[in-house]
Amino acid sequence: MAYDNKIRIIGGLFKGRKLEVIDMDGLRPTTDRVRETVFNWIGERTSGAAVLDLFAGSGALGLEALSRGAKSLTLVEKDADTAAILKSNISTLPDAAGEARVVNQDALSFLENLESKPAFDLIFLDPPFSSDLLEPAVELIVQKDLLNDGGVVYIEMNKAKKKVLFGLTMIRDGEAGQCHYGLYERSFFI
């Protein structure tokens, strides 16, 4: 595995910091332009937020949230090499960073095995486009009531496979290349 790629934090405490990214098939870090848009949408919700970055990959979304004042970040990544790079990147951040941890586990297993009800203010869902993991992840998040009141879920999916997600209501969306991205809140009429 090569580690020649880097992502850049675009805002907040760590603005401009470059972090290592593993070169792996299917790993597509969220672009700077899309991250800028998404964090403009999210606004002040990041400050003090409990954040879950499921299917973390490069960690671009979760680490951006941490840079912008999230109080805690859980990055869930199945691939051991990618999880190791995430841990290494976190270790380079100043102690001023909120509480951050990397869980090297399958995302659906992570959700299924949550014993207590941790609730999150911000959840990032960016599963591999070639997988069928998005809907089961959303179902578990809704079923286990993992989103705090006022919390939001950011989702990326292949625009050719765009779908309505049971239990969530889209409040903003956009497209970039093959990616459809959107910000969702919990539906109250399920």
Short description:
With about 190 residues, the chain is of the alpha/beta class.
Description:
The protein is α/β, with parallel strands linked by helices. It is 25% helix and 33% strand. The protein is built from 5 helices and 9 strands. It has helices at 32-42, 60-67, 80-91, 107-112, 134-143; strands at 2-8, 18-23, 50-54, 72-76, 99-103, 120-125, 147-158, 168-176, 179-186. A 7-stranded mixed sheet has the order 5-4-3-6-7-9-8, with helices on both faces. Strands 1-2 form a two-stranded antiparallel sheet. A hairpin with a 2-residue loop joins strand 8 (168-176) and strand 9 (179-186). The longest helix is centred in the middle third of the chain and has 12 residues, at 80-91. The mean pLDDT is 86.
Strand order of the largest sheet: 5-4-3-6-7-9-8
Q: How much is the average pLDDT?
A: 86
Q: What amount of the residues lies in strands? A: 25-35%
* Amino- and carboxy-terminal Cα gap: 44 Å
From the spread of the alpha carbons, the general shape counts as globular
Largest sheet: 7 strands, mixed
- Number of extended strands: 9
Alpha plus pi helix count: 5
